[in-house]
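Why does this matter for the project? Reviewers at the last site visit asked to see concrete outputs rather than summary tables. In response, this paragraph embeds two records directly. Each consists of the residue sequence and, immediately after it, the corresponding structure tokens. Nothing has been edited or filtered.
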Amino acid sequence: MAKRAGRQRNQLPTCYYEGYLEKRSFKDKASRKLWTCLCGNALFFFNEKRDIDYVEKLDLSGFVSITDDCSQDHNLDAARLNLHMKDENIKLTAPNAEARELWKGFVYSVAQLSVPSYLNLLPGQVHMLKEAVEMEKERIKKQSAGLYVSLKPDMPACYHSVSRLEAELLLEREAKKGNMLLRPGRNGDSFAVSTRQDHDCAVFRHYRVTRRHDGGFYIDVENPVSCSTLHDVISYLVEKTDGVLIPLIIEEPYEKSISFIRSDKENGEMSIQETISKVVPPSVPPKPVAPMVPTPEKVLVEEECFYLNDTLEEKEDNTDSSAVPPSQVEKKPSTVRIAIMPPTAAPRKFTHSPNSSTNSDPKTATNMGPMRLIPLAAITELKQKLEKKTKSQEDPLLV
């Protein structure tokens, strides 16, 4: 079994037939279900139909015969066959008997360049085999004449196996990635360079690149330009246009998560599972906070109790208010009013002078604030005076 040559699916020769096959050689212990493509004179095996890179290649140059295998398979609809090569034998399993007949017909026709007559096929299927034989003969003829380029790894990265119309659509859709690509020519023995530029509207141009019999290529214009390889063709166009033409290179997407297929031990069902690839970074510890030092205003609020509508600047000293003249009273900026419930402890004693200028001067009272803190003893004394006055008015004999 030959190793993978590094070519992708779009770089392989013309595909004559493809489908799923279970492959197992006599050296292998278990069979594998692979997507199989008959391209040219070789079988290319892929893990899945959508894969681009093949995993195995089987050259049919050592083909001997292909026969049915009548052994029983676990799948009753499946049909087995044996592919005999000069150096090894390969066991293949097709999905059904009809697919087995087609695989036998295509492999035999391409390897022997003739359609077998012993197969049970429909007229349309026989016609497909004849077309495959003619295409394979033409491919071998061009390859022997040096006109067929089969080693596509030598192709530039901007090579795309598309037609003229598909090239224009591709350049229109991927305009941000490039505006020039290399593609197969119309007659099959040449190549073409397609470009796209904007001038009021999209302008497409196509240049034929022909292979020379003595080796190398040339751009088929009025003054032909000779180049050693197709890479030189692209480099020449980029250089002569001062980088205006940019090769269109489309990178294949990569997987964003790691996944694998696991079989359930109980029921044997296959399921796709993803590995946990996210790593949570450690959290940064919070910065230490300096202890808060209480301000004098906060200490004042905690030590002294205020009634409603009291302000922080209305703080009573133990000294007599009459001893300080109103003109020397320090004016403090007004602060936010704080509503605190009345204290339960005994009230503080205050000295109060009824003849003080503070009570008599309205200007000074205005400056000291809208309300004054009145001691509880003064309130009690005032209440008693009001009660005596009320009784004297009711009973004049008590005076």
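We now turn to the second protein, recorded in exactly the same manner.
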Amino acid sequence: MQKFIAVSIIVFLAFFIGVENNQVLAYGWGYKKNTDHKPPDIGEYQGLLDKYGAYYADLSGDKVIYLTFDNGYEAGYTGDILDVLEKEKVPATFFVTGHYVDREPELIKRMVDEGHIVGNHSYHHPDFSTISKGSIQEELEALEQAVAEVSDQEQLKYLRPPRGIFNEQTLKWTSELGYIHVFWSLAFVDWETSKQKGWEYAFDQVMNQIHPGAIVLLHTVSSDNAEALEHLITELKKEGYEFKSLDDLVIKDEIPRPIYGF
């Protein structure tokens, strides 16, 4: 089931999962892939994201890009990625798990020291739709504490749900806990370390799907991504794109955000 979920997410096919213990439907983040250089239509998901102040793209029409990386374990390429980001003066957000923080404290510290944002991907990477609000809070707070112990970032306000699984209940609960959900509008199958296809493949996948306001999801375990990143940044800058952080996206958002439990 987990493999099916992961594949479905990245090829942008929406699916539904029945949760037997509370009969609440769960959704795997997905949408129809397009190459017309416009944000993909996410259908009824848009209403849920608007209701709970979540993001999948910057819909202002501005020619900006937000780079995000998911880090569950280290394969030796994150340092190279950070080198490129530093050279090109490009900000990024790294969504990390407890396993990653425990194993790679120096990389977490480097991310923060070099001006990047560390995002919350939960401590143990569970399916949020199958656990209680209290358990979700424990997962998020444990990860936040772990990051604070090895870096100067004391709070994590951006959340990417494990496996991209969510429902209205998990959106509501995490909003009440003060987190902002961040999904994505551009991704591809890049996490299979034994099936890398060369940096040109990663480059083409991004360039074919790029659009103004894209929140790009990449995985740092991909050698293709590490090798393609500088080429991508250089080409996208030539095309007039700017790279900004998620903080910039939230600041520019003039729509009042919902506040729960305060």
